[in-house]
């Protein structure tokens, strides 16, 4: 039971710290305030731009209305640009501005440093065990998410 408590304490602490450190690093590196939510929206856009706003909203598990409000703020900060699709005027596509691209790259580099700091200290066997364990944790999160969506839809 002590192991279970230690793992639980670690996960709760780590998730909170990652978000705080990530947000602080981004704000410090960019010279302006940017929230963890905004960082993750920029990340999703950067991975698939030009991206449909509806697809980004779906990936993040938020409504299109929530995504619209978030993009209003990001556009105001000069980080994203929105445009209607020429082939389907109902579709709004979002892309990163050069400043948004810089945020995306800074965030990506932060994650690379974080992962390297872990993997550089582990043997290949330990890395494999860690990856397998985290995959099991992700499976748990996916099951919980699906169950919550099922409760909300029915």
Automatic annotation (TrEMBL):
Pfam families: MarR. The keyword rRNA processing does not apply. PROSITE patterns: HTH_MARR_2. Residues 1-139 form the HTH marR-type domain. Coiled coil: none annotated. InterPro entries: HTH_MarR-typ (IPR000835), WH-like_DNA-bd_sf (IPR036388), WH_DNA-bd_sf (IPR036390). SUPFAM superfamilies: Winged helix' DNA-binding domain. SMART domains: HTH_MARR (SM00347). Keywords: DNA-binding, Transcription, Transcription regulation. Gene3D superfamilies: Winged helix-like DNA-binding domain superfamily/Winged helix DNA-binding domain. The keyword Disulfide bond does not apply. This is MarR family transcriptional regulator.
